[in-house]
Specification:
With 307 residues, this protein is of the alpha/beta class. The protein is 34% helix and 11% strand. The protein has 2 domains: 117 residues, no CATH class; 138 residues, Glycogen Phosphorylase B (Rossmann fold).
Length: 307
């Protein structure tokens, strides 16, 4: 099975990448099915040309891998309650039991521009602002953000329960990676997605497709500043986002598809009947003067061909 995110890149870029691996026909020969982890009513890479026709013919969409994600087991700091959807008063590091808005930057290696804007934004009255930079942010850049942070803003490098923070926040600002948005869409937390700039077209395409579907708000980094972000926070807290029209059932669909594929393979496979071991009377005897193991039943070369 070839599993693909719902957005890959512009068709011209992806065409070149398909050719690097031998072309769509060769890829199609190597896989029984193609699973696209998204909702075609939001974005369908088969219709945009990102998934070529040869592969599209055997492709199915699963829904986003969002609902029922397993708990990663990350322990929250001592004295901090586990986050729950809709529990705006849940405690979080640097926030306490006060309502809060959240900015999270994924790994953090390319989130500096968004972090620099977010740290100057003003959270709504009665709220704090928690910024999680990601563990890959440069140490000096992280330290500068902490120095710049105002009295109502807390900057931390990482947290073991980001999905819990997202579910408990009053509003979230994030980038446009698949995992981040898949986790986000399992909640009703309002979100502003600011896609990565200067890299692949994947994040902008995903962000604005989800915005068009009413699942998130989206802005480019060039159209965002601290004042715009402050206004967005103020206008979105207390207004949950209904995402029930988006297919988020991928984690239920994928096991079903896998079970069906395995069942089909078993039904098509010929029954295996092991050969009976030869009796002593019928066992061939090695010629005198040679070792009995001089000729094994199958050679290493033959074994590799059989495999």
């Amino acid at each position: 099975v070839l599993g693909l995110r719902e957005v890959l890149d512009t068709p011209s870029v992806i065409d070149a990448e398909w050719e690097k691996v031998g072309g769509p026909a060769r890829v199609a020969d190597a896989f029984d099915e193609v699973w696209i982890y998204g909702d075609p009513d939001v974005y369908d890479p088969r219709s945009t040309g990102e998934v070529p026709a040869t592969l599209a013919a055997r492709a199915v969409t699963t829904g986003y891998l969002s609902q029922d994600r397993p708990d990663d087991g990350g322990a929250l700091p001592e004295g901090v309650e586990a986050a729950r959807v809709g529990s705006a008063g849940t405690e979080s590091p640097g926030v306490g039991s006060q309502r809060f808005v959240l900015t999270c930057l994924g790994g953090g290696s390319d989130g500096g521009s968004l972090a620099s804007i977010a740290v100057d934004a003003q959270p709504p009255d009665g709220h704090r602002h928690l910024i999680v930079t990601g563990p890959q942010m440069d140490t000096e850049e992280f330290d500068r953000l902490r120095v710049r942070a105002g009295a109502t803003t807390t900057v931390i490098r990482h947290h073991k329960d980001i999905p819990g923070l997202v579910a408990s926040a009053e509003a979230v600002v994030c980038m446009g990676g698949y995992n981040t948005l898949a986790e986000l869409m399992a909640t009703d937390t309002p979100a502003l997605v600011v896609p990565r700039k200067g890299h692949r077209a994947e994040q902008p395409r995903r962000a604005f497709a989800l915005a068009a579907a009413g699942a998130v708000d989206a802005l480019t980094i060039d159209s965002l500043d601290a004042e715009v972000l402050s206004e967005w926070f103020a206008g979105r807290v207390g207004r949950p986002t209904d995402r029930s029209h988006i297919d988020l059932s991928g984690l239920t669909t994928v096991p079903r598809l896998a079970a069906e594929l395995i069942a089909d393979a078993r039904a098509e496979a010929p029954a295996f009947v092991p050969e009976a071991a030869p009796t002593a009377a019928h066992r061939p005897t090695a010629p005198r003067g040679t070792a009995s193991s001089a000729r094994l039943p199958i050679t290493l070369e033959e074994t590799s061909h059989a495999v």
